[in-house]
């Protein structure tokens, strides 16, 4: 992971690729060494904790609190536990024992606009700037959100080509109509913003 103030931005694209690959490898090794696996999307995270085969729910001690998570067997040291990276919605977070060998924990994040660098604060971080979210389809969005996203995409495309955005086009059209309906006014020296 590139530390702030290091020479990452001075590297060539090829050197960055090598550094990124090394960082991803180290990150993958660190994550593989954890006593659990985890995945996330912006709104939620899922954690899978292996437990001894044949475990039953009554054998487990699960703590799922606003800022704390712990999984273990009764009377033993927790398999994993500690402070969560950020607050969770406890009432919307759940856990279940699957096939008597894995505890599946579903965590609802309070801040649904934040990637977590780690589940527990004392564990190694991942580089959240390198997360590539799955593309959602425009057709998955409701009408109003879809319209807003399409407008943003159009405006971004127009800016990249040096052309006016949809708002600028509306202003130009309004001004053109006003000029047509008021031919007696001289707009030649007008500064329009």
Automatic annotation (TrEMBL):
Pfam families: CS. Gene3D superfamilies: 2.60.40.790. GO terms for cellular component: cytoplasm. It is found in: Cytoplasm. The keyword Lyase does not apply. Its main location: cytoplasm. Residues 7-29 have a biased composition (Basic and acidic residues). This is Nuclear movement protein nudC.
């Amino acid at each position: 992971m590139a530390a702030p103030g290091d020479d990452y931005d001075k590297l060539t694209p090829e050197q960055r690729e090598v550094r990124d690959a090394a960082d991803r490898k180290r990150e993958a090794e660190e994550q593989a060494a954890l006593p659990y696996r985890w995945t996330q999307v912006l709104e939620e995270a899922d954690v899978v904790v292996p437990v001894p085969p044949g475990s039953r729910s009554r054998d487990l001690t699960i703590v799922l609190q606003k800022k704390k998570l712990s999984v273990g067997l009764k009377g033993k040291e927790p398999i994993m536990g500690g402070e969560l990276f950020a607050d969770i919605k406890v009432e919307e977070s759940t856990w279940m024992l699957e096939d008597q060998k894995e505890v599946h924990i579903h965590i609802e994040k309070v801040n649904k606009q934040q990637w977590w660098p780690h589940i527990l604060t004392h564990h190694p971080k991942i580089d959240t700037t390198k997360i590539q979210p799955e593309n959602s389809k425009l057709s998955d969005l409701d009408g109003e959100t879809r319209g807003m996203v399409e407008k943003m995409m159009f405006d971004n495309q127009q800016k990249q080509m040096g052309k006016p955005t949809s708002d600028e086009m509306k202003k130009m059209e309004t001004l053109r109509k006003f000029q047509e309906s008021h031919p007696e006014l001289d707009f030649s020296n007008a500064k329009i913003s």
